[in-house]
Design brief:
The complex is a heterotrimer. Chain A is α+β, with helices and mostly antiparallel strands. Helices cover 45% and strands 7% of the residues of chain A. A four-stranded antiparallel sheet of chain A has the order 2-3-1-4, with helices on one face. In chain A, helix 3 (53-79) packs antiparallel against helix 4, helix 9 (276-289) crosses helix 14 (348-365) and helix 13 (325-334) crosses helix 14 (348-365). By secondary structure, chain B is mainly α. Chain B has a domain at 44-144 and 163-176 and 240-447. Chain B has helices at residues 2-11, 28-35, 45-71, 86-110, 117-141, 167-200, 204-213, 221-254, 266-292, 301-331, 335-346, 350-362, 370-374, 376-403, 418-441, 447-452. Classes of the chains: A alpha+beta, B mainly alpha, C mainly alpha. Chains in contact: A-B, A-C, B-C. At the A-B interface, helix 1, strand 2, helix 3, helix 4 and helix 5 of A face helix 2, helix 3, helix 6, helix 8 and helix 16 of B.
Chain lengths: 373, 466, 384
Amino acid sequence: MRDFAVLGLFDSADALMAAIPKVKEKQLGRLETYTPYPIHGMDEALELRRSPLGGMVLGMGILGALTALGFQYWISAVDYPIVTGGKAPGSWEAFVPIMFEIMVAFATFTAGLGMLLLLNKLPFFGHPILTAKAMLGITRDRFALAIEADPELDTEAAKAALNAVGALDIEVLTRPEQGPFLSADFILRTTSGIFIACLVAGLAMYGAVKLMPVLSPVSHMLNQPRVNAQQASSFFADGRAMRMPVQGTVARGYLPFGVASPEAAAALVNPLPRTPEVLAMGRQAFTVRCAVCHGPAANGVGSLGSAYGAKPANLQAPQFLAYPDGKILWAIVNGKNAMPSQAADLTEEQRWAVVHYVRALQRAQNAKDEDIP
Amino acid sequence: MKAETSTMNAEFPDILREIPLLEGSVTSGSLDDQVLGVTDRKPPRRWFVAMAFTSTLMLLGFGFIGYTIYTGIGVWGNNSPVFWAFDIINFVFWVGIGHAGTLISAILFIFRMRWRNAIARFAEAMTIFAVMCAGIFPLIHVGRPWLAFWLFPYPNQRAVWPNFRSPLLWDVFAVSTYFAVSAMFWYLGLLPDIASMRDRTANKWRKLIYTVISLGWHGSARHWQHFEKAYLLLAGLATGLVLSVHSVVSFDFATSVVPGWHMTIFPPYFVAGAIFAGFAMVVLVLVVVRESMQLKNLITLRHLEVMNKVILGMSCLMGYSYAMEGFTAWYSQNVYLHHTFLNIIGGHYGWAGWLTISCNIFIPQLLWFKKCRTSYFWMILVAVAVTVGMWFERFVIIVISLHQDYLPSAWRLYHPTLVDFGILLGSFGLFFTLVLLFARVLPVIATSEVKGSLPGSQPRPGGEHA
Amino acid sequence: MRTDSASKTPTVLLGLLILGGLGVAASWFSAGPERFWANWILWFLFYFTLALGALFLVALEHLVAARWSVPIRRLPERIATLLLPVVPVALIALGAVPVLYPGSRPAALQNPLLAGKAVWLGLPFFSLRTVLCLVLSLLALAVFVRGSLRQDASRDPGFNVRARKFAPAFMAIFAFVMTALAFDWISGLTPEWYSDIFGVYLFAGGFLAGLAATTLTLIHVQGQGRLRDVTGHHRYNLGGFLFGFTVFWSYIGFAQYMLMWYGNLPDEVLWYRDRLEHGWHGITLALAFVHFLVPFFALVTRDAKGDPRRLRWVAMLMLGAHALDLYWLVFPVLGKGVLFSWPELSFAVFFLAGGLLWIRKALTWGEDMPVGDAFLRQGLEFRL
């Protein structure tokens, strides 16, 4: 067990300051003082190096301001440029307040945490002084001068030196034995404690995330005081929430399909020209309404088909290549086998545009050499 | 000549003498026993009575907040066109209360006003509690507070970013930075005091808690050196921050084009008003604290007198601001500004305008008299008036400007509901509950700072300086 | 060698004064009265705000009973005596009112935005306010500076009591004078424009100029071997004030700009448009640099705040920045772009030489320190 330091206690800052130069000249070890409050002139007396905190804080402050400027500029002008309030996306004026705040935040945390963690190496509970008898006075009204091992310490000489300058009380501090702090038992207990804490926290989070969206008031956006489509409602005499169209009226774009049979429909001629706009409209409608089953290439391989169990028609099959336009339209309007009617979702124009698009897909899949221009 | 001047100091009239930092004989040890000893004893009955009262208020407020969250903010009186009302009034009011703490702990520290040492800790604590109270209001005003984290810019699956050109987002940054910095400042100051408590307590559990939160502080010269540097830097940063925070709050109003809001004087005027209101609250609380906790020798009447002088000075600054607002309303020859100003002094809410002006400008003028600055009755009267007046000032700014702006067909009156009042009272309950808890659990006076400024605590200037 | 150059200085200054005066006179005839008056107003405001700023520093000491600044108080007191030569300059400046201030012209009655305040902006009321400003400032000068100079001999602590009691009243006077100057003399150039922070903006710049002049004088005087007992600790405080008020000026200036930019109302942004177009954009940027960025980074570290060499050039820069600020406030109304030629140079030479001559003279008035002030010793003992 080696000695760490010899501690001499004084009852006033004056006595402490008077003792320092006398002890210093004996060069017995590293000098340190422990006091209840900061003493003016202590830095010079102990010849401490200047605290580097100021430079650290200045640097981090500038970094914070630049980070905030860059972050705001990138978000507002590059990644998500939206004009709000008539201000240009990269208007620097609006970035200044947050630049300032982030600068202060960076600088503050550098000053506070930098001082505690980096410079003072706190938290640290293993310093020998903390278990000294003298500690009771040091945080109250006593002033301690310590001669610390550097790296060896002549305990007796140090005691004598402190006696000579009139220390009221002298205490020898021993170096704490290393070991128990990082024992296997400790590590086991700590890790299992952390594990249990994580488990509990994880289960709690899981429960919260599962439950939160369905519990009131979080779920309130789901429970809205209105009636949904197809619901019953006591408000109207007929007990329905939805209204029937007024007698004798037809919604725009939804004229009744006046053709009685697929054979009659075969005679219909596509009224739309084959322009890029029409094909684009057809593609859009096809992608939304048809491609899930018939597949993007209209070959019957859609994402829904396998899951659903049905067998959507392969529109690239020979009988469909020869199908008249009107019969395709008939299928769109009235449905076929398991396929439901699409009439409610596609306007007349869109239906014919889909027919054009299906024809284009068929042509594309069965291209011949002479198609190459 | 030198000998002559030193004797003259005593003969000087009272007006020129330096403020004594404390009364009677105080030593480092007696200071610890007096201040830190409080936490060793059981609280007196009257503390429990006060606690019961304030925590009831607080729970009442929480109840109303729960009701608001469950039902939606339709339970408040806010409606078109007064979309902001009690919630934002209370927010601005509480953020403002906090500013006095930062002023006392940071700005007066930079100016080396050593009298602030005895009251800084309490004022800082009040800052933190006030910002906590303030934070509640925007949080519940968003309607779905569980989604409030959307305010922060983080990469998300919605692929959207917050709008950095919105002053409301600046607020998020300003208030959260303010809270973090205040908490850091407060905790650093507490560190040596908690170490003192750690070393004097005999209770095993308390010793464990104090040991952990004092981080092993042991007051070595090297630690103090970095500590003092950090404290000074933090004070400087907090000084800039305190200016910026209420300026940013004022931007919420001033960047708009609403008449009565779009004023270039708003940023410094809001800061002055915040310090004004905060000092009044600090005076109110300190009067109670020094009486009930036997701290009359540390928080002296001179402390209160100086604080009252600050209140008076701030009141005059507010008077200047009001005068400039009125002058500009006329000087601009702008009918909308003119109309808004007339609403403040004579419209449907004219009573609130005059209440504000009386409480903030006229009543504090009492403090010109030394008798009023040193008498509990008068200083409490003024402090209460200022607190009421500053709350109503925000009422005037928000409700009067909003209820009649450019479009006369949209003019409506505002009627607060019971829930509005309930939450307001609840925030006071929360604030005073936290203050009461703090007064029993942590040292209410920064003992290490006061110790360092006791007479004879520092070594006499040696040969090298003189 | 030093005495040689020192004895030559007044002659050189006098020569510059005469040379500048000739240029000033010539500019009336060749550059026209508008440009002449714009220059005149600039330097009138420069010295008025600078002297008031110095007086404010003195008043601040009395108001909060500060001790550290007692040893250097005589310097701002002497600088504040510039208020005396400002009186004739101000009275002459009233000649600019009919030329440069649209609100005082009969045409203002036809302008619906000005008709309501034509009486306020008219020459009689305008002059009345300026005269009131001068009288109030001279009153404050008499209380603070004459009282302090007399105390050198009398050693009467009653002066401290009087000054302390007068200080709050001075603050009210000061607020009125600064606001009136800002609204009448600067804002009045574009009378449709209004900004209720404008008085504070001018105060921030003026106080900064007063501080800079004090710092510069202190370092100059210390270079001559006077005021030896004033230490780095005192200089550090001055440097700290300079630093703080640089930030304050920027805060006020930016907040005013940002709010107007954000609101984008035509009655406000036109004023800024005038200062961001026709070459003025560069001056605006330069102002941001010399009035904020450069002094901010020059003074941000602890050592810099007390370093005389650093303080000297920063203080000079701040005085220049204040002149540039006023130039930026006044000259855009001429609508002729950025004007800088021999008339401006002559005015600068004339007024700077005159001001320096006055300060040289003022530096001999009274003792270098207020030796009659009982708090001098406490001030000298001041340590950070």
